[in-house]
């Protein structure tokens, strides 16, 4: 009925309703089935009418291009602030903009438990850098022409950066494994540029960690053309959101990244401020998103929307949950090999070690205030217990913190047992120090530590680590949201989350014990009294 | 045994008695499900039914109080210690010896001193206690607006409400048993349906 209300003015509604009833009543159920459940018609397609330029008509884009940098120069001949804007963003610096020490971020000295860290491995990692030629630490971050406009603005789907060429596309047809990479037709690509689609973002972010769904459990190739089941907002037959519908973009600054600063600091909705960044669920849905008076509205002060509305991640494609580098380097008949597991994903790879993959994963839940604390390569840690590479910061006492779902990727990675620091292995390269060439950890670590300019004792061991990702994408249809008892039960999903009293989960054992003693005591007392009465009556009657 | 038929319980009194019976039972069953003791209807259904019953009882309670005040029925709940110990002694020993009840029911005084104390305690302490703790439990998010955030914790309110529930459950057990102590096993229950009680004349 929502659709009818939007389409027809009030005075016509009765007539339309009457008509609809006459025509559709016999087939009402079939008609209802065509309207996707939950589709309100309130969110439309992205408007195209604000685009006032046809790029295929610009002479600057019709010149022959010998390199992608020349395309960038042509872009900048009109968009003269664009590269300078990009230079300030994390997409360019790979550094947390809120960290003045320039250590936080993969362009700094943070690390993970996937391919560990960028330094010494640049040409491979920076195939996902929005720039050209970051092949070592001498990359010129101030060169405007090194900004890759096309990777984000290509609308033809033909522009591809080669996986191992420091962000450059190929100039000759080249194979990477089975996949063929052709030189882009720069004129065709430039003529069709536009606002980024899901594919532009997804071509890097869905494949973080070097493969589909490796890093994120809630960002993978199923989001290129998702069904409602996978993501209610991006549903291609529904609202068909692009990433920027939530990741509000302002002069190339894209809302949403969280390191030291949260993705949002104010809980404001569009209802309160039309200029709000739409990065939080609350930005559009407000802090009381459910029906007025529904108890679920009372949860939004403690529970993130994601906790109930993303009941599981990796719902379409298995995600990597465990990566043990310590077993890497084993060969079969002197050759590298891969072993496929039950989910069709490799469980062993000579280059990388053992993996575990999982599908439909139930998240772990933690208090989260929007900030993460990342270990640095210079931090000394005690490796006795598994080490949290990034720590979720949040406490039930923080009014801005909510209980949030997380993917936790665990694994084992090289560690310096004397300096008590994690180390960077030089994995990728054609030189003899590269681990993927000679499988010598000592050489690889020496080269890696040298590249990042940090000491190494000469010893290494493997230490278990954990890396946290907030789960925030792949919002499920509302009928798939968690039910009360999923958490409100003695052994529910939030069994391990403290700092909040939850009916059904929490009880005072003292009160319960005394209560049941009183109840059972009453039962015993009346039973005994009754038996005595029965006996007395028999005696008296007799 | 000679008995005298007395009209003790008017229609509205019988109605509120059985309405409360139903409410208490449903509140107990759904309440202990919300408490996590078992799974029966599902948490959400239990929660919804529990709250609906709570508000229903609140309205009913207002009518009961109005009825008590306007009909003078409150007089039956005025506490007295006169013969209280006799009643206690009766239930502890006299009842087994076939002794007569020390305080037989009459139209002027339909509850014995022990009943008066118990019912007064329930109507003026236990029911309001459950209403207040239940209301606070439900409106936890509005505490700052009420102006007493920090003075209480949800845990305290929840535990108090649970303690009240146990008190009700214990009361129900004893109360139901006590209905069997009339001159026949079902005399008291019948009276609560018909309004007429056959009171023994000795």
Automatic annotation (TrEMBL), chain B:
GO terms for molecular function: electron transfer activity; heme binding; iron ion binding. GO terms for cellular component: plasma membrane. One of its GO terms (biological process) is respiratory electron transport chain. It holds the Pfam family Ni_hydr_CYTB. The chain crosses the membrane at residues 15-34, 46-70, 117-140, 146-174. The keyword Membrane applies. Its main location: membrane. InterPro entries: Cyt_b561_bac/Ni-Hgenase (IPR011577), Di-haem_cyt_TM (IPR016174), Hydrogenase_cytochrome (IPR051542), Ni-dep_Hydgase_cyt-B (IPR000516). It is a multi-pass membrane protein. Residues 9-195 form the Cytochrome b561 bacterial/Ni-hydrogenase domain. It is found in: Cell membrane. Keywords: Cell membrane, Electron transport, Heme, Iron, Membrane, Metal-binding, Transmembrane, Transmembrane helix, Transport. Belongs to the HupC/HyaC/HydC family. This is Hydrogenase, b-type cytochrome subunit, putative.
């Amino acid at each position: 009925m929502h659709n009818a209300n939007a389409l027809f003015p009030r005075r016509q509604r009765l007539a339309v309703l009457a008509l609809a009833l006459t025509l559709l009543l016999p087939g009402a159920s079939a008609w209802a089935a065509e309207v996707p459940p939950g589709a309100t018609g309130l969110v439309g397609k992205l408007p195209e009418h604000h685009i006032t330029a046809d790029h295929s008509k610009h002479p600057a884009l019709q010149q022959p291009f010998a390199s992608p940098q020349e395309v960038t120069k042509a872009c900048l001949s009109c968009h003269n602030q664009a590269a300078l804007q990009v230079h300030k963003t994390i997409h360019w610096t790979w550094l947390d903009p809120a960290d003045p020490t320039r250590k936080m971020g993969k362009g700094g000295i943070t690390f993970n438990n996937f391919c560990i860290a960028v330094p010494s491995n640049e040409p491979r990692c920076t195939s996902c850098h929005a720039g050209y030629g970051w092949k070592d630490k001498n990359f010129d971050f101030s060169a405007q022409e090194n900004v890759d406009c096309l990777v984000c603005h290509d609308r033809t789907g033909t522009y591809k950066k080669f996986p191992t060429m420091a962000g450059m596309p190929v100039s000759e047809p080249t194979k990477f494994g089975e996949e063929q990479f052709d030189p882009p037709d720069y004129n065709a690509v430039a003529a069709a540029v536009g606002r980024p689609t899901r594919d532009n973002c997804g071509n890097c972010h869905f494949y973080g960690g070097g493969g589909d769904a490796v890093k994120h459990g809630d960002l993978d190739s199923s989001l290129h053309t998702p069904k409602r089941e996978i993501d209610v907002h991006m549903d291609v037959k529904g609202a068909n959101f692009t990433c920027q519908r939530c990741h509000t973009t302002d002069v190339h600054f894209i809302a949403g990244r969280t390191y030291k600063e949260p993705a949002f600091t104010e809980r404001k909705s569009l209802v309160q401020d039309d200029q709000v960044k739409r990065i939080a669920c609350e930005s559009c849905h407000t802090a009381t998103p459910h029906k007025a008076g529904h108890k679920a509205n009372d949860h939004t002060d403690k529970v993130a929307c994601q906790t109930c509305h993303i009941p599981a991640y990796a719902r379409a494609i298995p995600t990597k949950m465990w990566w043990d580098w310590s077993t890497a380097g084993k060969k079969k008949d002197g050759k590298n090999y891969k072993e496929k597991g039950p989910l069709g994903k490799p469980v062993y790879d000579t280059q990388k070690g053992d993996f575990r993959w999982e599908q439909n994963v139930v998240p772990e839940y933690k208090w989260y205030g929007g900030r993460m604390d990342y270990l640095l390569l210079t931090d000394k840690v005690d490796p006795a217990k598994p080490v949290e590479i990034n720590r979720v910061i949040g406490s039930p006492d923080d009014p801005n913190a909510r209980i949030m779902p997380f993917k936790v990727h665990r694994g084992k990675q090289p560690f310096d047992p004397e300096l008590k620091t994690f180390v960077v292995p030089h994995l990728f390269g054609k030189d003899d120090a590269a681990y993927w060439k000679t499988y010598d950890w000592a050489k690889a670590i020496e080269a890696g530590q040298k590249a990042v300019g940090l000491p190494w004792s000469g010893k290494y061991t493997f230490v278990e680590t954990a890396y946290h990702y907030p789960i925030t994408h792949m919002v499920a249809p509302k009928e798939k949201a968690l039910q009360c008892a999923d958490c409100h039960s003695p052994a529910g999903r939030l069994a391990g989350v403290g700092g909040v009293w939850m009916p059904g989960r929490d009880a005072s054992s003292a009160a319960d014990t005394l209560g049941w003693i009183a109840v059972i005591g009453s039962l015993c007392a009346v039973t005994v009294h009754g038996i005595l009465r029965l006996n007395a009556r028999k005696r008296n009657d007799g | 045994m000679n008995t005298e038929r007395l009209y003790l319980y008017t229609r509205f009194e019988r109605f509120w008695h059985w309405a409360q019976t139903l409410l208490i039972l449903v509140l107990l069953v759904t309440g202990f499900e919300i408490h996590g003791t078992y799974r029966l209807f599902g948490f959400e259904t239990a929660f919804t039914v529990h709250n609906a019953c709570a508000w229903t009882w609140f309205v009913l309670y207002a009518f009961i109080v109005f009825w008590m005040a306007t009909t003078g029925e409150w007089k039956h709940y005025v506490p007295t210690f006169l013969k209280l110990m006799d009643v206690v002694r009766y239930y502890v020993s006299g009842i087994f010896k076939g002794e007569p009840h020390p305080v037989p029911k009459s139209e002027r005084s339909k509850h014995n001193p022990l009943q008066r104390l118990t019912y007064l305690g329930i109507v003026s302490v236990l029911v309001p206690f459950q209403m207040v703790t239940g209301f606070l439990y439900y409106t936890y998010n509005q505490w700052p607006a009420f102006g007493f955030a920090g003075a209480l914790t949800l845990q305290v309110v929840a535990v108090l409400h649970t303690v009240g529930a146990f008190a009700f459950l214990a009361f129900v057990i004893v109360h139901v048993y006590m209905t069997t102590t009339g001159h026949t096993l079902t005399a008291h229950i019948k009276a609560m349906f018909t309004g007429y009680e056959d009171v023994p004349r000795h």
